[in-house]
Each structure stands twice: as structure tokens, then as C-alpha cells.
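Hi R.,

Here's the chain you asked about this morning:
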Amino acid sequence: MTQQFRITCAAATLALGLAPAAGAQTVTYSFEWPGGGGYAMRGALSFDAALLGEQIVTEEDVDCFVVEGTHDGAPIGRWALGMLTETTTWTMTFDPVLEQFVVFGPGAPMPQAWNMNGIGTDCGPDGFGFNIGNAAQDLCLGGALLVESQVPPTRPFPAARDDGFSFPADACHGTMILSALPLAD
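And here is the predicted structure, written out as C-alpha cells:
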């Protein structure tokens, strides 16, 4: 093993996080969503504090995100940012000035799609998702729309600043994977 290869391997074991740069601060908001038919959801998101003056924070700005659903108080499913794949429906629009998620209205036909498409069929066979579109705010469970969970699409969806929230490990962007391939001599 060459010295250059050993150095490359050692460097490859360092985790380069995708979190904000040193010195940057994040803010966290938690939220609760009361749906219809005894369904509810709670969760949290975090993003760079520099975005607090922005009108809209999108899914591209989020560092951590998690939602957990319940029915009559019993857990039914969850989704976290670490579960995001290339095929996941993922749209998130949050207004940090008003401290609320954007709801359906002019210019916002489907402002929230958290592991759930507009018809509520793509949250996966064992999955959980949430959506706000032109028909309703609602949940998806096991690849099917939970019609009973629906509430009006324009109902406000507030969030509260909660910088003490503790995210589960799968709620935040992961680390980049580095290769340990040897360098040519």
C-alpha cells in the first residue's frame, strides 16, 4: 500500500456533512396539523437562520425535516428527509415571516407534497405522506389516500419557533460518501 493511497483512505473516512458551514446558525420550527376523522400529524423543520427574512423557504433550503402521523392518538406512520429518494414527491414551502406553511391559493396549486403526490397514491406500500393541493389538505398511508383525514385546502397551517427540538438521526441530510480508490502511480 503506497503512502499516497493511505492518505487518500484516511481522508475518505472523514465525514463531510451537508449542514451549514461553521459559524452558520439554524432555526427550527415545530408544527402540529389536526386533520379530519381523528387523524393528526406533527413534525419539525430546520434551515439556515439567514433565510428568516426571506418570503419563502423551500425544500432545497431545509437541513432537517420530519413528520409523524397519528390516528386517534396512535402512531400510524412517519416520513423524514433521510428517506428522500430520486422518486419521492417532495415539495415544501414555508413562510418564515408569517411562521406558517403556504396553503393552496393563487400561485400555489400544490405548495406541500411531503412524500405524497396530488392524488395520494405514491407514499409507498408502507409509507406515510402529507399534501396540500386544490382539493384538500390530507394524508397518505400505505400508498392510499386517507379521505377521512381531509380538511379544507386553504386552512392556515402555522408553525412555532422551537430551536430546542431534537431531530431523529434520519431527519437531517446525511453525509457525503467519499471514495477510497487508489491513485494511479
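One quick note: The longest strand covers residues 39-48.

Cheers,
M.
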